[in-house]
Amino acid sequence: MEIVVNLDVVMAMRKVSSKELAKAIGITEANLSLLKRGKVKGVRFETLAQICHYLECQPGDLLAFKPDGE
Q: Which of 21, 22, 63, 64 gets the most CB atoms within 10 Å of its CB?
């Protein structure tokens, strides 16, 4: 089982670039890239809240649970 990060999809739907989002929420583009690719072990709720506020979405729009075998 794994958590799938759909941040890139939501960003594309909102036509927001990585550079724009990273600047708006105060993180580096490199860290945003790692988050988009699901290469992080965790994310602060504060960061998640800032992303959701900027993209006008819910945490569930960004993250999905994928059970084994799917």
A: 21
* CATH topology classification for 2-66: 434 Repressor (Amino-terminal Domain) (1.10.260)
Q: Which pLDDT tens digit goes with each residue over 22-43?
A: 999 999 999 999 999 999 999 9
Residue (of 1, 2, 5) closest to 48 by Cα position: 5
How wide is the angle at C-alpha 62 spanned by C-alphas 60 and 68, nearest 5°?
Answer: 80
Q: Which of 10, 25, 2, 1 lies closest to 60 in space, CA to CA?
A: 10
CA distances from 55 to 1, 10, 39, 46, 59 (A): 27, 8, 21, 14, 10
Q: Where are the domains of the chain?
A: 2-66
Q: What is the pLDDT of residues 1-20, one digit of tens each?
A: 689 999 999 999 999 999 99
